[in-house]
Amino acid sequence: MGNSPHHGGYDHPGNGYEHGGGNGWGGGGGGLPPSRYKTELCRNYLATLSCQYNGCAFAHGVDDLRACNAPGSSYGAPPPTSTGPPPMSAYHSTIEALLDQLRTSAHGELESLQASREAKERLEATLRREQTGRRDDAVAIEAWERHIAALKQELAVLPDLE
Q1: What does the alpha-carbon distance between residue 64 and residue 79 come to, in Å, rounded to a whole number?
Q2: pLDDT tens across 29-42, in order?
């Protein structure tokens, strides 16, 4: 696979810097150079609070980050071996992002609901006007029918002029 913007090109097989790579620092085949191990946050983890790569060389939360070694310095301690749950600070930014998405979605739903209510009220008002107009028309038709019937009665009593 080609380089992906996910981790600056460091996350796909075939580019030498793989998630779960294996130069002994991430368990697999490739991995970040030792000087870069756990110096960047894992974008998969930030987005979903999980990472599909076993032995990922990227940090899963702020508490998992380590300082990048200066050029020419020795590597330092090997990666941690703990597989326990991530620290609570790792969840904070993701929870805030999810809450923002929820607020945005709820705001959009509320606006949509308000627009639907306003449209319903306009339709109901139009229907009431139409019903009132039809009642008025029916009353007018009845009045004309009575008037026509009265005229027919008057014509019936007139003498035949022929």
Answers
A1: 10
A2: 345 677 778 888 78
